[in-house]
Amino acid sequence: MTPASLLFRCAVAAMTLAAAASPAGAQGTKGSVYAQRYAELCASCHGANGRSDMAGTPVLAGQHSFYAITQLYLFREGRRDNPAMSAVARTMKDEDLRGFSDFIATLPAVPAPPPATPPDAARMARGQSLAQENRCLLCHGADLAGGQQVPRIAQQHEDYLQLTLQGFRTGKRPGYTQAMSEAVGRMSPEDLDTLAYYVARFPGAAAKPTSSPTR
């Protein structure tokens, strides 16, 4: 683990531990506050139910609180490069990072709408092989639903997956371990696109209960 990754993991841990000191009633009140703030600030891009229909904008439905708070922290600190998200996160206090991430964790996973055409069987088979060969299932789970610091990726938008995988391959996208960079660093651009194609159309990714908000 690099010093930088250790630093921001400790910072996120400190923020989540601080949340545990809040009384249960206060947590409930904060939940309704951040539900409203999400509707006002986030829903226009990410969707009211967390399943965005905007190109390049990730699905948040079914995502985990620890992962969400980590990404918001990275945006706020300038560690992830996205002008729109950085501008929003830059105004957030630690309490806001917790509030938004806890609310996101309450959004149940929403299956992708049926594709206009059936998935290409050969490409899906190749994508499945790539997912197995490159240890995707080891961290993200057999259902690609992830867990806490590991994101749910099943039926994420294909263009966002492509951009993310390319970012890890080139080092533009930070991670708190080297796992993703090592996994995709040996893959060709064509294989990255095929993997994104498969994950975006992952079969059987029905809605499942999300993780509990970070406490």
TrEMBL record:
Residues 1-26 form the signal peptide. Its main location: periplasm. Residues 20-108, 122-203 form the Cytochrome c domain. Heme c 1 binds at C42, C45, H46, M85. Keywords: Electron transport, Heme, Iron, Metal-binding, Periplasm, Signal, Transport. Heme c 2 binds at C136, C139, H140, M180. Gene3D superfamilies: Cytochrome c-like domain. GO terms for molecular function: electron transfer activity; heme binding; iron ion binding. One of its GO terms (cellular component) is periplasmic space. It is found in: Periplasm. Binds 2 heme c groups covalently per subunit. InterPro entries: Cyt_c-like_dom, Cyt_c-like_dom_sf, Cytochrome_c4-like, Cytochrome_c_Oxidase_Subunit. SUPFAM superfamilies: Cytochrome c. PANTHER family: CBB3-TYPE CYTOCHROME C OXIDASE SUBUNIT FIXP, CYTOCHROME C4. This is C-type cytochrome. It comes from Variovorax guangxiensis.
